[in-house]
Specification:
The protein is built from 16 helices and 11 strands. The protein is of the alpha/beta class. It has a 7-stranded parallel beta sheet, with helices on both faces. Helix 14 runs antiparallel to helix 15. It starts with a strand and ends in a 7-residue tail after the last helix. It binds nicotinamide-adenine-dinucleotide (NAD) and magnesium ion. Nicotinamide-adenine-dinucleotide binds next to helix 1, helix 6 and helix 9.
Length: 396
């Protein structure tokens, strides 16, 4: 068995942490080729000491200099790179076969795309890249001969429930529908009147998962599920009307596939990202992820309900953006990134997030995406429009 050499883009984040945990359990199978982070150079230095990558990248150039000095002091041979160019180089290292795309937001787009064009096995966490890039991103995957393995828990569940070799053609495989489950987040039952004053920490206190702050807010607004509908559409070639969202507060069933004969296949497990990451890292083998099995008897009951669209308007905004096509999903994603960052910084209220996204979609015309640059232009426009509408400073 040859050792898989893995580059982790976004190694200091929540997904990076889970990926490194699984990798460290299997030194006979996995080795770390590259690790990247944004500004936390001390944390990346610790990870370099533990995992000994060939390459380490800080997207912030000042932090890269700090990291380089720290690694030299520690006597490590790791090559330190900086900036977007460094991320792209880490994504296409010739002696790495696998890339974990775990940078948050549009910041991960170029490096994830570079991995696609270089024909890597991509473990995709960075759903925003797919939401922005859509067909152009999938085209790059095909052109580069890359393999896309979803590690977003829902999409990994769907991947596990689809037939081996599934080629984005639901009808040929007898797939009737995809059901995405959603926990409903921390505000599923919170009185609506209290939502305008909820804090960032409350929004990030997810009942079942521990995640980075951006995706935690997305889970609270359920924009995350909206982005995941778009992600599922591109990954599995399933039209929007055949993707259903069901609220399942226990986060035990991670998603389901319904077939034309009426069978529904589901993937279940404890909510721990190491399970989907291990599944994709070892695919088609199975390896220990350090995660216990479910105690079904102790669980007792699982619950399901339809999402409340008045409480969670972002699901519909995302569905509409997917229907509108072209640049609309890129606009939605960019507006959401700006609004969520502003909410996390205490500049706007939680209840300003959905209207900011809706405004950006209303103000910007939908244009076709012939190439990724079209989507990137829409992303830039949406950021500017959203900053202006929210009366935020124009800085990055
Ligand atoms: P996080 O905030 O914990 O980590 C983000 C990582 O990206 C960090 O390593 C950070 O250094 C890096 N980063 C941030 N801004 C950057 C920039 N401008 N340039 C380069 N690098 C930058 O986020 P996370 O929760 O690990 O999520 C990462 C991605 O995975 C997101 O797209 C998220 O939607 C997706 N995802 C996460 C989970 C989860 O459980 N955390 C589950 C499913 C999908
Ligand atoms: Mg998910």
């Amino acid at each position: 068995m040859s050792i898989r050499r893995i580059s982790i883009l976004g190694a200091t984040g929540s997904i990076g942490d889970s990926a490194l945990d699984v990798i460290a359990r299997h030194p006979d199978r996995f080795a770390v080729a590259a690790l990247t982070a944004h500004a936390q150079w001390e944390r990346l230095a610790e990870l370099c000491l533990r995992h000994r990558p060939d390459v380490a990248v800080m997207s912030n150039p000042e932090a890269a200099s700090q990291l380089e000095r720290a690694l030299t002091r520690a006597g490590l041979q790791t090559r330190v790179l900086a900036g977007e160019a460094g991320l792209v180089e880490a994504a296409r290292l010739p002696d790495a076969d696998t890339v974990v795309a775990a940078i948050v937001g549009a910041a991960g787009l170029h490096s994830t795309l570079a991995a696609a064009l270089a024909g890597k096995r991509i473990l995709l966490a960075n759903k925003e890249a797919l939401v922005i890039g859509g067909a152009a991103f999938m085209q790059a995957v095909d052109t580069g001969g890359a393999t896309l393995l979803p590690i977003d828990s829902e999409h990994n569940a769907i991947f596990q429930c689809l037939p081996t070799g599934y080629a984005r053609k639901p009808a040929e495989s007898g797939v009737r529908r995809i059901v995405l489950t959603a926990s409903g987040g921390p505000f599923r039952t919170r009185p609506l009147a209290e939502l305008p004053t909820v804090s960032a920490d409350e929004a990030c206190a997810h009942p079942n998962w521990v995640m980075g702050r951006k995706i935690s807010v997305d889970s609270a607004t359920m924009m995350n599920k909206g982005l995941e509908m778009i992600e599922a559409h591109w990954l599995f070639g399933v039209p929007r009307e055949r993707i259903e969202v069901v609220v399942h507060p226990e986060s035990v069933i991670h998603s389901l596939v319904e077939y034309v004969d009426g069978s529904m296949l589901a993937q279940l497990g404890n909510p721990d990202m190491r399970t989907p990451i291990a599944q994709a890292l070892a695919f088609p083998d199975r390896v220990d992820a350090g995660v216990d099995g479910l105690d079904l008897v102790r669980r007792g009951a699982l619950n399901f309900s339809a999402p409340d669209h008045a409480r969670f308007p972002c699901i519909r905004l995302a569905a509409d953006a997917l229907d509108a096509g072209g640049t609309a999903p890129a606009v939605l994603n960019a507006a959401n990134e700006i609004a969520v960052a502003a909410f996390l910084a205490g500049r706007i209220r939680y209840t300003d997030i959905a209207p900011a996204c809706s405004e950006a979609l209303a103000r910007l015309p939908v244009r076709p995406v012939h190439a990724l640059d079209d989507a990137l232009a829409a992303d830039a426009d949406a950021r500017a429009v959203t900053r202006a509408w929210l009366k935020l400073p124009l800085a990055a």
